[in-house]
Structures are given as C-alpha cells and as structure tokens.
C-alpha cells in the first residue's frame, strides 16, 4: 500500500507515458477486465504511444467490458499490429470508441491486413457494405469500414492524401449502397429511369474529409419506352430517398449530409435534370464559379455510362471558362478571401476559410487550372495535391512555392482530419481547449510540447499559405522573362499571356515587356524587383486598371532606380510597397502628381517620410513662407510654393486612396464622412497656405516688406467651407484698406497688381498643377472690380446686396493676408448672412425660385440628372441650399449655425431640432456620397467631373474607391440613386415646403 502523501510507482509510470490524469488511469487499470495484463509494460508503452493515452485506456476498458471472452485481450497483448491500430483509434476518436463499445465484434476488422487491405479501393469498400439492407445496417457497416481507414491514418500506414482518397472511395461505395437500397424500395421507379450520381467537391476530387457534406449532382434519362416526365419524377424520388438514407439521423446516427445545391439554379432548380437540360444551362446561364466547381465532377454511382456522358459533354465548357466575358471580374471577386461571414471570434481559428487556410490553396490551384488547363491536359485533375504537382511540373508554379504549399496543405489537412476524427463532427475550427490541442499535436507526432509545437507549426504553415497565395500567380510570370537555372521549367509566353489576361491585364504583351525591363538581369536591383513584383502584381490586379499600375510602377522605378533608398524602402518598410501599389493603380491623378517628383514615394513609408497624415496648416504655411524667403524673385518663390502644394496634394490623395481601399494590415475606413472631411480640410489648408506664400512673394518683389495697403484674401464657397476637392478652383474675394497716409488710388493700383500677379504666377505652365483663382462671387460678379476696399464692400452691401450674395457670404472665411482686416470683413458681413429678423417670405420665395431655375438651366445637356452629383436631385446643391436656408433663417439666434461648413451646420440644425435627426442623417449621407464621387472622378480621370464616368474601366475604378468590388458597378449606381432619392424627399419637405 502507498504511504499517504506519496505517489505510487504506477502513478509515476503513467505520468511518464503521457497520461494527464494518472489517478483516473490507475482506477481504470484496476478494472477486472485488465487484471491479466495490469502490470504488463507492453500495454502501457502502447497506450503511451497514442494521441491521448487517457482516452485510449478509457475506450479499451469499455470495449473489454462489452466482450464475452478473452479473444480481444489476448490478441491485443500478442499482436503488435492490432495493438497499435486499435489503441491508435481509441486514442484519437471518442466517436469510434463509442461505436466499438456498441458493436463489440467490430474490432476484428483491424486484426489482419492483407496486401489489398493496405490501400483498399471502391470494390473493397463495396464488399464491406454488401450486407447492408437498410439505413441502420448501412451506418454500422460504414463505421466498420471507417475504423480501418482511421487505423491506417493514425498509425501512419497511409498519408493524408491516401486517407482522403480512401474516404472518398468509401463515400462512393456508400452512395452506391444507398442508391441500391432506394431502388429496392421502389423497383418500378428504378426501372423507369437511368440515374447517374456525379460527385462534386472533395468527394469528386478524391480528397474527402472524415466528416463533410458529400456534394452531388444528379443526371436522369428515361429508360427505353418510358415518358421523360414520368422518368424524371421517378429519378427524383430515387435521388431524394438516397439522400435521406445517408443524411437522416437513426439510432446509429447519420453518415453525412448529401448536398445537391451545386446543381443548376441551386436549391431552386429541379433535383434531377436530363443531360441536355444540364448542357443548355451551362451553355447559357452558368457563372464562373459553377465551372470551377465542375473541375471536380466525377461519376460515382448509378448509371456510370450516363455519368461519363455528362462529364464528356461539359468538360469542353469547363476549359473554355477563362474565355468568358466576365471571367476577369469573377476571378477578382473570387480571389478576395471570403471571411466576412465568419464570426470575428472564429477567424483566427478557421482552418478552411480563414486567411492562410485550406481554401486559399484550393482556390489558387483551381484558378490556375482554369487558366492553363485548356491548353495543357496534364492539369485536369480533381485532386488539389495532384493538380498542384502537375502545375509545378509544367512550370506554372515555381518549384520552391510548390514544395512549401504542398507541405502546408498536407499539414493543414492532417489537422483538419484529426479535429474531425475525434467526435466525427463536421468542423473546420481549431479547438481552444488545451486537452484537445494536446491530443491533436501528439497525433501529428509532436510529443515534446504538443500544444506549443502544434500552434507554432500551424501558424508557420498558415503564414506560408498567406504569403504564397498571391505570389503563386505572379512569380512564374517573372521566371518567364528571367534567366533560369539549368533544368528549371519556364512558363511559356503564351501561358504567361493567358495568366495576365485572366488576372485583369488588358495588354499582356506590354505587361510582359514591363516585367522584363524591371526584373531581368543579375543586378541587385533586379533581384530586389523579383522579390517585390509577385506581391505588387497581386495588388495591381486587385485594382480596376492593373495595366496602369504596372506601367506607373515601371516609370517610378526608372526614375528612382538608381536611388539607394527607393527599393530599400519598398522592401523593408511594411506599408510602403502596398501603399504604392494602391496609389499607382487607382487612377491618373496621384500617379501624375508622383511622376512630377518621384521622391515623394518616401511619404508612403512607415519611417522618416512623415507618413500620410495631413499636415497642419501652420506647418504648411511655415514651410512655404520659408521657401519664399529663400527664393530669388516671385516666380521662383511661387514655383517653390507650388512644388510643396503638389507634394502635399499627393500626400492627401495617397492617404485618401489607401484609406478607401484598405490594406492587408488595416481595413478600409468605415466612416466615409471622416474621409471626406480629411480631404476637404487638407486641400483647403494647402490652398490657403499656397495663397499666403504667393501673396508674400508678390509683395516682396514689388514693395519689399510692406504693401501700401492692407490686403486680405477671403475664402468663399467650398474653399471657405473647408470642403475643397482635388479639382476645385479657389473661390475668393479680395479686400484691401489703404494704410495711413497712402492715396486710395495708389492703394487700389497696388492691390489690383497683387491680384493680377498672384493669378498669373499660380497659373504659369509648369510641372506642378495650376491653382485657379475664381473671384466671380464678388459684388457685381464679373462686371465688378476684382478688389474693393472694406468701405466699398460696406457701401455695396448696404445699398445693393442681393439675396444670393447674402447666401454666398455664409461660406466666407479669411484665408490669407492681413488677419485684422479679415476679421473686420467678417464683422461687416455677419449681419447680412445672419439677419436678426431672419428671412421674409419674399426672400424665401426668391431663394427657392433661384434654386429651381438653376436646376433647369445649369444642368449640362445630355447629363442624367439622377446621377449628377452637384445639380441632380439629392445632390450637393440640394443639401447645401437646404442647410443655407436654415442658416439664413436662424443663424442670428443659434450660434451653432454660424459655421461655413455644411456638415457642421447640418449637425447644429439637428441639435436645435430645426430638422429631424433622421432627415439630417439622410442629407448628410447624400452629401458625403456625392462629395466622395466627385473626389473619385478626379482621382480616376485626372480631371474634375460632376457625374459618373462613362468609360467602363474608369467607372469600375470609381466603384473600387467607393468600396464596391468587381462586378458591382450596377450596385454602386443603384445605391447612389437610392441615397439621392431619399435626400431629395427630405429637401422637398424642408426647402420647398418647410
């Protein structure tokens, strides 16, 4: 007897053999059934070699309790092969242990292995299921066959690919047995039709899991002399009965669900179709993913000749899928990892659908098969691993990538098998419980620290898949234009062209020329490019214009290729390469700005480039004024100011693109209003700083330090409202006030000369974009003087001011020049724009009349009003006039309305209950969306526009910027119309009738 407080020698031995609950194990070893072998070291050694010794011992005791004699115990001790197989299964699968406890003689299926038993096929499994005559006996026989597969698997007799193939063969035999049972139950139906069962998915690909839906498609034809309608009805009954036999739960559980949803029209289509009906559907209606699914189609049960006819008829269509009109956008959609539907808590545990999961490998292989399999029949395999091997042999996948992906896929599938085998439940989630992780790790041969080692290996293999998923498509393209080592297989020019077309490149020949120029040769620069390009090409392909992205990258690389920091930045800075790829392929504006000074690439990095955050106006103004003070003359000074403006416009555009597209590390900005405010604020601050610098330059050259008159620039319109877009002019008013002792005419001449010179210098042809100054909102419009004194403004506004001018002054804000003069100008106009008595009814009617006239007269001929972001229903004009009417009416009494910013005024109106919160949200959404569309058009086309582009590729690029994936341009336009329509209803209620 063991002394209190001391562990028995058995306890210690159990710990040493891997038991986690030695106390419970000791009690189990005391069971009378184990009395003859309790102290036999062979048993403990064998148990310790299993994935879960505690589970194996528990299962063994239960199995012995169910025995009537000592055959099992004697055989376990005497026969090592049985001992290893039986205990291996018991230590890996609680579900199969339960089956053995209920069916006490089924352990005999593991006793001997003939050579044919080492790798059984469909015929052997059919013999194993031959005696099943009903669903219950079929389940028992199925589990008995599954025992032998699991035993070979856990003992290492078969690898993961062989186990998956055996599972698929067992599924084939089971489908045949189930169909036979269904036919025996309805012999008249069986005689009336020919029914073929086509396996799809993993069963069709000969790579099934332990527990998985078995995807099938049914093909039916009438037996000779039978009416087709009657025959299809009979075939449907047989197919339905066969599915129920496999899927329904009985006293012996279920086998697996049979899923026919991959059939034409999915669950809305008929369960069984004739071959001609299938063919007609795939010729006219099928989508790309349906041809992708057909890669794995394989006749498995029923009329195999009819099944073979089905495959032969559809195979040519599968290999022409890459020629379909919508193949590229379909591919772009499918290439995006579909993880949105995975609960957030599960994303990091998903073996199948998560980033770096099994689906990434399977999709990549299938896509390459569709692209290259039409010309190379060696790629036409339903098995992922066989297809991957064939792709490597043909040079379509780099050999190093193949080796890593093959190993990663095998490891991840092995994990999936072990997870499912435990309880025979369909799951792709890695468990969180440490005991489960320990069992899985040990089953995969990780014995020293199973949990830590399993997590490390899993993360490592997932990382490999994640890293290679995109490179898999692009690295062989570089090999096609590079010098290869002897014996390496090169992707042919035609295969490279096919792949580029499939990935969205419209001019594959030009793309290959760019790749050759960038990556060929033996220089260090070419070597770094070969490292970068596989990833960059994937990012380019994610855009609406991959060709432009690659061309722009070549231009930037040509300009900066000899600069030591450029390629180092892209290689070493985590965000720089992806940010550059997004910026270069998103449209014309940002690349054009970058090409004029390629060193601005440094802004895209994580380090000293300053990043993409907008710079405060004070910092911008300080930099520009410093550059102006260093310059020789006004022209040079303004050139320097415009250079800063160009660089900062690029920074703003790049930040906007990256925020809108998102990156692998950071999702797209969800708050569209924040993106709009950031762009509007950054461009407005930049414009103000540029004007301040230009004003300083002009004054210095003409008058030295002091101008004879005080001078201020007042921002108007979007400029005053901090809402400038990339293509906006700077709406301004100019005001001056003669200094003491200066003649008014002299002051006026000086002020006019300043304005004229500022406008000239800011529009001089140069590499930098011009800044157009628009003073048309001044008193008397184009007929009035460009510059007025403060007194002149006061006299005009007192005597002649019109209602529209008071409305325009709502956006007035000093932006440059004499701060005191600007402040006094604001004091002058405040009573006009925020009248104490509000607006008279006549004034309101006049504003409404002007608005209605503008809608009819200013809309461009031929433009679709519903898609015009400025003047169309629910567009910018609608929202802004509605907000401005509220400001004119209530600004005097509500300080919150005294702002030049549309969104801030709208928020203040809602806070003051002048407008329902829901209506305010509707108007805000419409205003933000319309502004985003205008910004997108400028980014994409490089020139301003108020409506969506007509060019297909440009329209797709606008959609990508707005968050719409490939193929969803129609959704974008519908959403815009819907948003604008709702906003117009609010405008009608508030502006025209409120």
Keywords:
single chain, elongated, mainly alpha, 994 residues, 5-stranded mixed beta sheet, disordered N terminus, 5% strand
Could you walk me through the main structural features you see in this protein, from its secondary elements to its overall organization?
By secondary structure, the protein is mainly alpha-helical. It has 44 helices and 10 strands. β2, α14 and β3 form a beta-alpha-beta unit. α10 packs antiparallel against α11, α23 packs across α26 and α26 packs across α28. It starts with 8 loop residues before the first helix and ends with a helix. The N terminus is likely disordered.
Summarize the structure.
This protein has 994 residues and is mainly alpha-helical. Helices cover 60% and strands 5% of the residues. α5 crosses α6 (80-92), α9 (122-129) packs across α11 (160-185) and α32 (634-661) runs antiparallel to α33 (672-703).
């Amino acid at each position: 007897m063991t002394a209190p407080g001391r562990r028995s020698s058995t306890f210690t031995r159990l710990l040493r053999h891997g038991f986690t609950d030695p106390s419970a194990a000791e009690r189990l070893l005391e069971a009378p059934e184990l009395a003859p072998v309790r102290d036999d070291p062979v048993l403990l050694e064998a148990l310790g070699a299993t994935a879960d010794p505690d589970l194996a011992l528990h299962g063994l005791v239960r199995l012995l309790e169910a025995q009537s004699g000592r055959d099992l115990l004697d055989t376990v001790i005497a026969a090592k092969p049985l001992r290893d197989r039986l205990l291996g299964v018991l230590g890996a699968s609680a579900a199969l242990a339960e089956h053995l406890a209920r069916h006490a003689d089924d352990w005999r299926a593991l006793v001997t292995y003939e050579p044919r038993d080492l790798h059984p096929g469909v015929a052997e499994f059919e013999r194993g299921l031959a005696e099943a005559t009903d669903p219950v006996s079929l389940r028992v026989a199925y589990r008995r066959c599954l025992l032998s597969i699991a035993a070979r698997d856990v003992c290492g007799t078969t690898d993961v690919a062989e186990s998956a193939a055996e599972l698929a063969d067992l599924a084939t035999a089971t489908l045949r047995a189930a169909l036979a049972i269904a036919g025996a139950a309805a012999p008249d139906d069986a005689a009336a039709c020919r029914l073929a069962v086509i396996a799809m998915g993993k069963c069709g690909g000969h790579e099934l899991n332990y527990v998985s839906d078995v995807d099938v498609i049914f093909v039916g034809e009438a037996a000779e002399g039978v009416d087709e309608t009657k025959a299809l009805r009979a075939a449907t009954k047989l197919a339905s009965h066969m599915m129920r036999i496999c899927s329904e739960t009985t006293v012996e559980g279920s086998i697996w669900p049979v899923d026919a949803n991959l059939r034409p029209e999915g669950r809305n289509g008929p369960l069984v179709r004739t071959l001609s009906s299938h063919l007609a559907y795939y010729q006219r209606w099928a989508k790309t993913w349906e041809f992708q699914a057909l890669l794995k189609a394989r006749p498995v049960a029923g009329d195999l000749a009819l099944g073979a006819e089905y495959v032969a008829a559809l195979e040519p269509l599968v290999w022409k899928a890459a020629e379909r009109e919508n193949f590229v956008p379909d591919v772009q959609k499918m290439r995006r990892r579909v993880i949105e539907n995975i609960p957030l808590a599960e994303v990091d545990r998903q073996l199948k659908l998560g980033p770096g999961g099994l689906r990434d490998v399977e999709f990549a292989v299938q896509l390459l098969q569709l692209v290259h399999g039409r010309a190379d029949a060696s790629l036409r395999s339903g098995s992922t691993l066989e297809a991957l091997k064939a792709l490597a042999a043909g040079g379509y996948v780099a050999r190093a990538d193949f080796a890593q992906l093959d190993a990663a896929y095998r490891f991840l599938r092995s994990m999936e098998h072990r997870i499912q085998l435990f309880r025979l439940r369909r799951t792709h989630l890695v468990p969180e419980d440490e005991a489960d992780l320990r069992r899985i790790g040990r089953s995969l041969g990780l014995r020293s620290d199973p949990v830590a080692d399993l997590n490390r290996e899993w993360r490592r293999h997932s990382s490999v898949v994640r890293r290679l998923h995109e490179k898999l498509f692009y690295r062989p393209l570089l090999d096609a234009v590079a010098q290869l080592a002897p014996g390496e297989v090169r992707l042919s020019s035609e295969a490279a062209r096919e792949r580029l077309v499939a990935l969205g490149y419209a001019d594959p020949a030009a793309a290959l020329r760019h790749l050759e120029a960038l990556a060929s040769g033996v220089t260090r620069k070419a070597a770094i490019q070969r490292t970068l390009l596989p990833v960059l090409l994937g990012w380019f392909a994610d855009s609406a214009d991959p060709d432009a992205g690659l061309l722009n990258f070549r231009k930037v690389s040509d300009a900066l290729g000899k600069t030591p920091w450029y390629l180092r930045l892209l290689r070493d800075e985590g965000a720089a390469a992806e940010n550059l790829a997004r910026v270069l392929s998103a449209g014309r504006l940002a690349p054009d700005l970058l090409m004029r000074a390629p060193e601005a690439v440094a802004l895209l990095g994580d380090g000293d480039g300053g990043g993409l955050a907008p710079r405060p106006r004070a910092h911008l103004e300080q930099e520009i004024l410093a550059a102006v003070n260093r310059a020789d003359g006004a022209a040079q000074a303004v050139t320097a100011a415009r250079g800063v403006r160009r660089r900062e416009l690029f920074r703003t555009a790049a930040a906007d693109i990256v925020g809108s597209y998102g990156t692998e590390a950071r999702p797209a900005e969800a708050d569209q209003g924040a993106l709009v405010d950031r762009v509007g604020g950054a461009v407005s601050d930049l414009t103000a700083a540029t004007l301040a610098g230009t004003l300083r330059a002009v004054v210095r050259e003409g008058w030295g330090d002091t101008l004879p008159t005080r001078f201020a620039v007042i921002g108007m319109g979007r400029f005053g409202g901090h809402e400038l877009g990339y293509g906006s002019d700077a709406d301004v008013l100019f005001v001056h006030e003669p200094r003491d002792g200066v003649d008014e005419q002299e002051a006026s001449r000086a002020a006019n000369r300043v304005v004229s010179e500022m406008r000239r210098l800011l529009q001089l042809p140069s590499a930098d974009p011009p800044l157009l100054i628009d003073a048309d909102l001044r008193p008397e419009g184009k007929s009035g003087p460009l510059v007025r004194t403060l007194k002149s403004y006061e006299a005009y506004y007192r005597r002649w001011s019109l209602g529209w001018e008071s409305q325009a002054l709502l956006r007035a804000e000093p932006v440059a020049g004499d701060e005191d003069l600007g402040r006094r100008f604001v004091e002058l106009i405040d009573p006009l724009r925020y009248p104490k008595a509000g607006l008279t009814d006549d004034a309101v009617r006049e504003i409404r009349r002007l608005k209605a006239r503008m809608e009819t007269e200013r809309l461009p001929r031929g433009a679709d009003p519903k898609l015009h972001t400025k003047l169309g229903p629910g567009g910018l004009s609608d929202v802004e006039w509605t907000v401005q009417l509220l400001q004119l009416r209530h600004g005097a009494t509500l300080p919150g309305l005294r702002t030049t910013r549309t969104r801030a005024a709208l928020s203040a109106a809602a806070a003051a209950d002048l407008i329902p919160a829901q209506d305010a949200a509707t108007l805000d959404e419409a205003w933000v969306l319309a502004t985003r569309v205008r910004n997108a058009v400028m980014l994409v086309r490089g020139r301003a526009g108020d409506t969506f582009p007509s060019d297909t590729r440009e329209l797709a690029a606008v959609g990508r910027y707005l968050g719409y994936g490939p193929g969803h341009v129609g959704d974008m336009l519908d959403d815009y119309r819907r948003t604008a329509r709702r906003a117009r209803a609010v405008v009608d209620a508030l502006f025209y009738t409120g």
